[in-house]
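Recap from last week: sequence in, structure out.
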Amino acid sequence: MAGAIETAARSFAGTAAEPASFDTLHELLELQAWHLAHWRVAADDINYRRFFDVNDLAGLRVENEAVFEHTHRLLLQLIAAGRIDGLRIDHADGLYDPAGYFRRLQQRCAELTGRRSARALYLVVEKITASFEHLPDDWPVHGETGYRFANVVNRMLVDSATRTRMDRAYRQFIDEPLEWREVAYQSQQLVLRRSLASELNVATNLLARLARADRRTRDFTFNTLRTALAEVIACFPVYRTYVAATVADGDRRYIEWAIAAARRRRAAIEGSVFDFVRSTLLLELPAPTDELRRQLRAFVMKFQQITAPITAKGIEDTAFFRFNRLLSLNEVGGEPGGYGAGVRAFHADSEYRVRRWPHEMLATSTHDTKRSEDVRARLNVLSEMSTPWREAVRRWSRFNRSRRRELEGLPAPSPNDEYHFYQTLFGSWPLEEPDAAGAAAYRERIEAYMIKAAREAKLRTSWTETDAAYEEALLQFVRSALEPRDSNLFLGDFVDFQRRVRRFGLLNGLSQTLLKLTAPGVPDIYQGNEIWEFTLVDPDNRRPVDYGRRRALLTEVRSGGVAPRTAAEHLEDGRGKLLLTWKCLELRRAHPELFRDGSYRRLRVRGVRAQHLCAFARRLRQQSLIVIAPRLYRRLLGESAGLPLGEAVWGDTLIELPREDRSRASFRNVLDRAQLAPVRQGESVGLRAAEALAAFPVALLCGGCDAPGADP
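Predicted structure tokens:
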């Protein structure tokens, strides 16, 4: 049998020297239900749904009940056996009907577990929401996976007052007046023209059929409809809408927004074409027959499925690598054009979450973040020192002038890539001076990252159209700039600059960690981030984690051998972040109801340093938690080498207590067990920041939480 099969297979073989010898194989392939083609053809002609532009990952129609049951069989078995307590659903916006999928999944979980609830299983969804957008209220889920929180807390650590100066520093360096909105628009148009053009073609075909069904629109050509549709998608303000049988007010607003923006950009297209697209997306197109109504809904559902991947590829995987003003803002779900935000925005987000999604996941690093939480925390410091930063990058560019090449009349690397490189080094530079092997390993990481960043930007090279000469020039620039020799003026100057300010990034990291572990929601700690972790985009953030080191540090911390003041004085070794993480998690374990069901109240801060504090209270019955997280540390401390502790830094700054907590005799500091008594300043009753922040840069205070052996 094997021999017969081998003989039959050989009968279809051909030889390169005789093209006609492949005719038999060609005839066989032509009889198949699929079409064999060069991989580049997929960008224009592929007619099945993919995971972004990965041809090998075909999408499944889980809206089909049989497909759902088959693909979820093992998962449902594990849930029924009690082996799985919750699910994280990635790329939910790629579903045909997300709400329907979540309802079916929860219904099956309820049947298997006997829990009579619309939310029978803990379920969070990876959903990228704009700052003005929220999850649909009718989804039977527990919230998002944490990208929104990551960006809210990150923006709070950016000094919004320096936006104009940072704009000027960036534009002067790259000699180009880039605007985020235009960069995002052009990037999405690029994706529509190249990697996801076939998805646009499929949607346009569906739209053209609807147009041909009415004598008033039948003359709209395919190309005109395609251009209009591409314009609407590129102008879409959110990843997608969720139109099904009806159109929600929010979805109507986003569609109207996109149509209006598309009209302004494409005034040459007849207005009636955009009117047609609008009425179709809003389900207002006259459809007198069941078949036309089916086609109308099919188009709208298909349109909604493609806007999310196009936006993700255009924004996250293109524009984020083109617009490099402050890289900490270029994060999944981020809005680089918005720059920073204040404490009020953080409070508003927390108040909404505790009302609507109290069990939402809170993340600061994930497998998909562009940079780890600690890299972003360090980069945010640049917003507080725009002038020194501007002078530094100018100086470094002069030092590295001889390392640049000229290719086809343009510098290599480009000024934009060079600016990106300096920020990347600043954010990811190791805390400990590396030895020769460590320096080589770090250089290799930066080389790989810079090549990926340049390809993602798709300006001088790309994944599909690599420019070997440009990439070689970029690699040589990185290698030469990081060469550890005495004559390397750049490296010595950079290391000195970075060393002087890196502690402010560590302090930012402590505030970020405390807020994630105490704000309403369920904190998610990505592998390795229990201590400082300065990683970049994948695959850099998916390297093996040194858990042995982390276990050793945790043993030391749990034994009581690390005092908070000592940890603060030696922040670089990671024990301070680990101590804070351990103490917060122990408190959550001791008082789960307080964190699960407790209210949230923003606290007013008074005094000369008030703008440097974010403070809030969590309360449940007689238990209270006071959280105090400083911000903008460099502005707070200036060039001082000291820590942000005590009277000399905080002076008369007072955190006002809620009325129900003003009569407490004292609060206990969870980190060092110190007792703090409320004080009166004029008509205000509160806690003095100088006392709360006497031994450690952040504070977590408990009132009414004491129980024998319960608290850490």
